[in-house]
Design brief:
This protein is of the alpha+beta class. Helices cover 43% and strands 13% of the residues.
Length: 389
């Protein structure tokens, strides 16, 4: 879990002090450095959130790896709210929601014991080479997990890439359900006390302190927009972020991955509507719309490939047919042979050609030789010449 933005100085100080107190409680100075909470051994810190610290741990009773989140619940009402939320989350049995195994309390600190997920957060996965279809389908899994929690009456309150984990098998699990919202004493907290990560939060939460499942949808669409286009959909961030949210109906389009279809962008724009009533009714609808956008793109690509394949096959058939119909090429420096019947006819005229071969005007180079032959033949036929005495 990554560090949340927008924490008040008091919240940050509480988390830092909590981490220091936990780190200072070593079971054995001479042996391995770890903390024990009941049957759970805390090995190392793996993340900090708005209100707590997450540790990689080990369940000594069941001998399995776990993740343990420790947070402060000293204020009146917070402990009861956390217990109520934890019981509700424990009833959500969904492959895309991290499983909750145990809830405990030590003094003013409560802890939750969850599955330990090997792999990466989507914040880390987004920085790796990955196509838009693959990243969209990962978010679809997260959307299904959010929908299951919403059906159980749970709101996440801090949807962002850092709170969505991807295991080695490609399974996505959403973590940190509901804690940011439930740790407030009032229904409409002051802006400085509102939890969550501000650059992903919905306008109704930032401006009015009110939220519901559609607020999670807004944060989800901000996260997917960032994964696809390289930046969150706001023209600029920082101190003017709240002012920019007034105009989120038309988010600025940033650098995109190649081939992101317009249908997918339209889904995100609807989820980013400034008014909750203009968004999708449920996260299931968002996940369905994203899936259809991917399927539609695959179908269009398949049709294009089919057309290219048919065209290539037709071109090859034409080349083969042309090759079969063309006569064989004559060998170099060889005169083409005539059909047999023509050779027979020409052969019958050979004697006549011998008789009339000298008729006509022979080529100049042959003329002297043929004249000498004629004179020699003619001279042999004449009687011997007698010189007059």
């Amino acid at each position: 879990m990554s560090r949340a933005h927008g924490r008040s100085p008091q919240q940050a100080a509480e988390v830092a002090a909590l981490a220091e107190r936990v780190a200072a409680t070593w079971a054995d100075e001479a042996g391995p450095r770890f903390v024990r909470l009941g049957r759970y051994q805390l090995d190392r810190e793996i993340g900090r959130g708005t209100f707590g610290v997450v540790f990689a741990g080990f369940d000594c009773a069941l001998e399995r790896e776990v993740a343990v989140k420790v947070f402060h619940v000293g204020a009146p009402g917070r402990a009861l709210a956390v217990e109520r939320e934890a019981r509700a989350l424990a009833r959500v049995a969904h492959p895309n929601v991290v499983a909750l195994h145990d809830l405990g309390r030590v003094g003013e600190h409560a802890y939750l014991v969850m599955d330990f997920v090997e792999g990466w957060s989507l914040a880390e996965r987004m920085r790796m080479p990955i196509g838009w279809r693959a990243i969209t389908l990962l978010f679809v899994q997260a959307g299904r997990g959010l929908a299951a929690a919403h059906r159980a009456g749970l709101e996440h309150g801090d949807v962002k890439p850092g709170n969505i984990l991807v295991g080695p098998d490609g399974r996505v699990q959403v973590v940190d359900f509901g804690l940011a919202r439930l740790l407030h004493e009032t229904a409409r907290p002051e802006p400085s006390k509102r939890g969550g990560t501000r650059c992903y939060a919905a306008p109704e939460w930032l401006f009015e302190g009110q939220s519901d499942a559609r607020s999670d949808q807004f944060s989800f669409c901000v996260s997917l927009w960032e994964a696809l286009f390289g930046q969150r959909p706001w023209a600029r961030e920082g101190v003017e972020y709240e002012a920019m949210l007034v105009e989120v109906v038309e988010p600025a389009k940033r650098r995109s991955l190649a081939g992101v279809p317009a249908q997918l962008e339209c889904v995100l724009r609807r989820g980013l509507a400034a008014r909750p009533g203009d968004r999708f009714a449920t996260m299931d609808e968002v996940a369905d719309a994203l899936t259809l956008a991917v399927i539609g793109s695959e179908q269009r690509r398949s049709r294009r490939q089919a057309r290219i394949g048919v065209g290539a096959a037709a071109a090859i058939s034409m080349l083969v047919a042309a090759k079969l119909l063309m006569p064989a090429a004559a060998p170099a420096k060889a005169r083409p042979k005539l059909p047999g019947k023509i050779v027979d006819v020409v052969g019958k005229f050979a004697p006549a050609r011998a008789v009339v071969g000298d008729v006509g005007d022979p080529p100049a180079r042959e003329r002297p030789a043929r004249s000498r032959e004629t004179r020699a033949r003619d001279g042999a036929a004449l009687p011997p010449r007698v010189d007059p005495g």
